[in-house]
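Input for the complex:
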Amino acid sequence: MNNMLSSSQIKSIKNLQNKKFRREYNLFVAEGPRLVHDITQSWLEVTDIFFTPAWSPATRMEGVRYFQIGSKEMERISGLTTPSEVLALVRIPSHTIEFDALFGDDLTLILDDIQDPGNLGTIIRLADWFGIEKIICTAGTADAYSPKVVQATMGSIARVTLAYYDAANIIAKLSAMDVPVYGTYLDGESIFRSDLKQNGVIILGNEGNGISKEFEQVVKHRLTIPSFVKHDKGSQSLNVATAAAIVCAEFRRRKIGS
Amino acid sequence: MNNMLSSSQIKSIKNLQNKKFRREYNLFVAEGPRLVHDITQSWLEVTDIFFTPAWSPATRMEGVRYFQIGSKEMERISGLTTPSEVLALVRIPSHTIEFDALFGDDLTLILDDIQDPGNLGTIIRLADWFGIEKIICTAGTADAYSPKVVQATMGSIARVTLAYYDAANIIAKLSAMDVPVYGTYLDGESIFRSDLKQNGVIILGNEGNGISKEFEQVVKHRLTIPSFVKHDKGSQSLNVATAAAIVCAEFRRRKIGS
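Predicted:
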């Protein structure tokens, strides 16, 4: 039997497409059976699941409200061009990372004002692949709980620990600690020839401006990905998510020692 | 002094947002000073440049028509949300790649039905970075001359040789040649431990389905990018452009022998 959603319920859910309301309600939206499955398997707290008859929950989880709705209603609450059969509301986690324990035991990524939601989603997904569990974002980085990012992570949002801090706080912390801090630059030492520590901190810079002057002060190792162009025409660069992939892969390759 | 564009001129330019018309006119659109600069420096043939007073051509190239227009007119012909100060019409190249010389002398990428324009643009850009000049696309791959792809390549579209063929033709050619053919899979030999030849052909598969059954028959080396996840929850995978970046970087790292 279908529930009827009230227009105020529909409005509340649609509001979650907007960062202001996500912060106010402390909720984000996840859509699609695979993503919802991955999230229910994680430590994230699901509050509501809206589904059409095409989907059925394997087991109903305690503390979750389930609403069977029609596909017309799904269209009204979905943020996707092609709505799927299930939409979940998920509590935005407030990770209780001890600031003192942030760095130094395993690889950590720091995102310095990454702007593009697609890039952010891709970076979260590849961090998950490479077992990098801590991602620290500056306050100026795109919202990881926006629908575009959540969908682009393909479930990885449920498996990484992600927290936002003011850049100044992160920099102060890094300055006070003796951890290897790496930054990616167009000039620097070839990553393939650099000494890479598995307890390092990798800073990834903004799409247009790269790593900020403030963060640059704490970078101890300037890494670069060598280019193999055979001509000097044009102005090559790598997308930040592409660079992140290559850097993370190289760190992990060294770990397994091949 | 400003030219006035006729409404049929405006319509023709806007039509180029659409693949059908790009094929009919054999033209594509490039926007923004950096992209237009990179294209004018390449072997691509520019036919028309539309610019506002904010832009001025360093030297006027022979055979190119220049139109100074107002920013209102730029808004009418631009495909960008925020129009820039220059828009060029560029002839779609018909690369005269000898099919016989396609494979075997340096790395070649084969894109097997890559669907997402962002992924395609990212792959073209990273191929350029790594000096991989030949990109062969199946007919089912997204159009590399669509505005989204052209803009995402950040000028790299002007520096790679890219051609479309029917998958069956490419497969027949590969079957008849003794070249190392690599494919990326979720299972396979770790790319970090595999023998990688610099004259190889790397097949990248469709976002949802991976490498097709037909192409699989010619794959001689199944490569995988090892995952470092510490738990078995969820269903990790890497985005195809991310995987392409790691694979290309690893091939090139071997080349420089570090």
